[in-house]
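Postdoc handover notes: sequence design on the structure in folder B. Input tokens:
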């Protein structure tokens, strides 16, 4: 696949703070690229430079081999992390208003049908639910038929049903040929949607590859997960080096049978035991040492 967006040696400083510190990566046409990291890692600053909102202090960003210019602005769609919709106008009116920024646009009625907005087209934007607002923002980001779509934490605050519905819509956008750059705090979302991910911390990229390749490179064990009330902390931490997180004890092991035998030796009940492969949340915590924060 050809490269659609190339970031080379990007740097951004705010006074004495280097928010983005000499990062480079490429995004391939038709792929979904995930940019992950804890708050303060430099993700949003990176995204804003790639969108043309902030100017880098050093480095280059090239869209289809050229510096960001009018072609990029016409062909990029952006769904910001937070967007204040204009009030006292209808959904249709705000979509019409937004479509006038571009020379080539999609049909508003087709977008409304695709993203289940047709029932709300004549409704005041102030009366939209969270899920309805997110669908409207996605439709607005797609109104110019973008070749590259920026989604900055698009599902934050949505209930699980609305989140999965948005995932389906993003998958459809990708299937239609658009390239997607996604930031998210939901590791399941990143695994579900992204072909490649880059994890940032302290302004640098500390890991970059396909999700399964990253997991295979960093882990050769599994997690035996037990309800925290079923395994006393003094036993869990001393005998199993368990990590207690929320209501569960997580035991990392390369030999599940031996671990279960050891648990039975201490009369630990197994009726709520769960065995799972390592996931992106484990990788995130392993690399950054920081809890996920929404």
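Designed sequence:
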């Amino acid at each position: 696949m050809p490269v659609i967006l190339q970031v080379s040696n990007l740097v951004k400083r705010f006074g004495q703070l280097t928010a983005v510190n000499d990062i480079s990566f490429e995004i391939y046409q038709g792929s979904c690229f995930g940019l992950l990291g804890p708050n303060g890692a430099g993700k949003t600053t990176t995204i804003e430079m790639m969108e043309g909102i902030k100017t880098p202090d050093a480095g280059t960003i090239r869209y289809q081999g050229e510096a960001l210019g009018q072609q990029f602005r016409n062909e990029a769609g952006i769904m910001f992390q937070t967007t204040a919709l204009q009030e006292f106008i209808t959904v249709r009116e705000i979509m019409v208003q937004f479509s006038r920024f571009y020379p080539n646009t999609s049909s508003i009625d087709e977008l409304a049908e695709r993203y289940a907005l047709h029932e709300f087209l004549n409704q005041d934007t102030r009366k939209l639910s969270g899920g309805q607002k997110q669908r409207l923002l996605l439709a607005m980001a797609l109104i110019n038929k973008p070749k590259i779509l920026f989604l900055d934490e698009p599902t934050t605050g949505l209930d699980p049903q609305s989140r999965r519905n948005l995932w389906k819509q993003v998958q459809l956008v990708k299937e239609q040929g658009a390239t997607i750059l996604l930031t998210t705090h939901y590791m399941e979302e990143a695994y579900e949607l992204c072909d490649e991910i880059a994890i940032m911390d302290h302004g640098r990229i500390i890991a970059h590859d396909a999700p399964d390749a990253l997991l295979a490179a960093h882990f050769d064990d599994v997690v035996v997960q037990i309800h925290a009330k079923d395994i006393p902390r003094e036993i869990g931490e001393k005998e199993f080096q368990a990590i207690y997180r929320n209501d569960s004890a997580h035991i990392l092991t390369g030999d599940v049978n031996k671990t279960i035998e050891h648990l039975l030796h201490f009369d630990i009940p197994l009726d709520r035991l769960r065995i799972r492969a390592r996931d992106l949340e484990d990788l995130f915590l392993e690399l950054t040492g920081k809890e996920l924060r929404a």
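Context for whoever picks this up: The first strand starts at residue 3 and ends at 14. Don't rerun without checking with the PI first.
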